[in-house]
Design a protein that fits this description.
It is a single chain. The protein is mostly helical. The chain is 60% helix and 4% strand. It has 19 helices and seven strands. It has helices spanning 2-11, 16-22, 28-34, 40-72, 79-89, 91-115, 118-134, 138-155, 158-165, 183-195, 207-231, 248-268, 290-316, 344-368, 373-376, 402-409, 426-432, 441-457, 476-482; strands at 279-280, 286-288, 340-341, 389-390, 393-394, 421-425, 462-466. A three-stranded antiparallel beta sheet has the order 1-2-3. Strands 4-5 form a two-stranded antiparallel ribbon. The protein is extended, with a radius of gyration of 32 Å.
């Protein structure tokens, strides 16, 4: 869970949650909860979908590079060499390659626990520690370093190491494959059974009662589970069934969600095909600061240096106290950084690339079926109409410019109507009446605004003043962000 939170801190404001929402994988509120790992299972599933989508996007980018080299008769680099070159030249490629690497690390660590592979467990948990050091999560960094060091010492004890190699460092509650649990996870499940509906609340304040509960709790949980099995015996072959994610329905739904995520990302541009020197977010035209890119480049190296120094100075030579503070890195992440808009030239180039791809598909379609440009342009061919938006952002404008069009349709006529009710736009009246000698809002209201309203009220029996309300789902939200 802690590592998922660290991964969420890297992905915050990167556009990742927007992609999940637009792909229909989850809702807005649930997607935001993935950043803090509020629900571990759902968050882990979201990262699993993401890493599959990123892997396919990286392969698609390499295939595009290979085809372009063949067309230009240039030498084609091997995929590993191509990754190194793109990582050095493209900040966007480097960031999402790093995210994919960390998501694979999460899946590998989970696999080591679920399968009871002690060697893999040691290998991958040691790779997690530098990330905690780099992101200043010192509590986890400090005690996970101790845990990794203890696991190495246990490996030297033949009898204990043999048991751990057999998978006895985790717990197997059922006969299902790939379903083992970490010991702390199993304890939490037993505690939930013993507690019931608040049965163990308040025990932490009484040491004697807490001790009795800790001793008797697992046994009580076992008795409860045996009683439940007696009331509803399981099916004969239930222990031989496969993992729940091996069902056909789950696999089809998983593949469908991966395809949706890929389509949404491709619509904004494949991040692994980005060749600019700017660090761009998904689903946005924003450019991340260069300081964030430098922090991402040095994150794993800095974390590994701190981890190595911590183990050497505090666990081996003990030249420093274990409780001494650890130096903070204060890395500049995407969240909270000042961003700037993508340049006009870059935006136009991106639009031209999309249009080029669109007309290429149109040309291919016209070879096999009847149709023409007139039929093609009768339908929307962009998710966001270019007449109303630019790069997915609605075009700002002034309402006063509409008057030029409206005046041509309806020439003004000096006709006075006998009205009983007058409705005024409060904001328009404020902009129309000059404040004059008024220096404060109170003076403006008493000396300028209210007298004008009173004068107008003499000609009608009722006068209403309407004020704007800026709702969160209104188009005015974009105007406020621009201003």
């Amino acid at each position: 869970m802690a590592f998922l939170k660290a991964l969420g801190s890297l992905l915050r404001d990167s556009g990742w949650t927007d992609v999940l929402v637009q792909a229909g994988v989850t809702t807005v509120g649930t997607a935001d909860s993935f950043l803090s790992a509020a629900h571990v299972t759902k968050t882990r599933h979201a990262h699993q979908l993401t890493v599959c989508a990123l892997y396919q996007l990286m392969n698609a980018a390499y295939e595009q590079y290979r085809l372009s080299c063949q067309a230009l008769r240039e030498k084609i680099m091997p995929v590993d060499e191509w990754k190194v070159v793109m990582t050095e030249n493209s900040p966007t490629f480097h960031f999402w390659a790093l995210i994919m690497q960390l998501e694979v690390l999460v899946r590998a660590f989970l696999s080591s626990v679920r399968s009871g592979d002690f060697m893999l467990y040691q290998q991958y948990i040691a790779k997690m520690v530098p990330v905690f050091f780099a992101l200043d999560q010192h509590n986890y960094a400090r005690w996970m370093s101790v845990h990794v060091n203890d696991m190495k010492k246990i490996s030297a004890i033949e009898s204990v190491s043999h048991e751990f190699q057999q998978g006895h460092f985790v717990l197997q509650k059922t006969g299902r494959p790939f379903s083992r649990l970490a010991l702390d996870h199993a304890h939490e499940q037993n505690n939930a059974i013993v507690k019931g509906d608040g049965g163990a609340v308040g025990l932490s304040g009484n040491p004697a009662a807490l001790g009795r509960w800790m001793v008797s709790g697992p046994e009580v949980a076992r008795v409860i589970q045996e009683f439940q099995r007696t009331l509803s015996p399981p099916e004969k072959d239930s222990e031989k069934l496969g993992h729940h994610e091996q069902s056909l329905a789950f696999q089809v739904d998983f593949a469908d969600n991966v395809t949706k995520i890929i389509d949404v990302i491709k619509e904004a541009g494949n991040p692994f095909a980005e060749r600019t020197c700017d660090f761009l977010t998904l689903q946005s035209t924003e450019i991340i600061s260069a300081a964030t890119h430098e922090a991402m480049k040095s994150m794993l190296t800095t974390g590994m240096q701190q981890y190595t120094s911590f183990v050497e100075d505090r666990l081996k030579t003990k030249t420093k106290k274990f409780s001494d503070p650890i130096k903070r890195n204060n890395m500049v992440l995407i969240a909270g950084t000042k961003r700037k808009k993508k340049g006009t030239g870059t935006c136009k180039l991106s639009i031209l690339k999309k249009n080029n791809s669109l007309f290429s598909r149109l040309y291919i379609a016209c070879q096999t079926r009847p149709g023409g440009l007139d039929d093609f342009f009768q339908h929307e061919n962009h998710s966001t109409p270019p007449s109303l938006s630019s790069e997915g952002q609605i075009r700002p404008g002034l309402k006063s410019r509409l008057m030029e069009c409206l005046e041509q349709l309806s020439p003004p006529e000096a006709v006075r109507s006998d009205a009983d009710v007058l409705i005024l736009d409060g904001a328009a009246i404020v902009h129309m009446i000059r404040p004059g000698a008024a220096k404060t809002f109170r003076a403006y209201a008493e000396d300028v605004f209210l007298p004008h309203i009173t004068l107008l009220l003499q000609t009608v029996s009722r006068l209403d003043v309407i004020w704007n309300m800026y709702r969160t789902d209104s188009l005015k939200k974009t105007a406020r962000e621009v201003s």
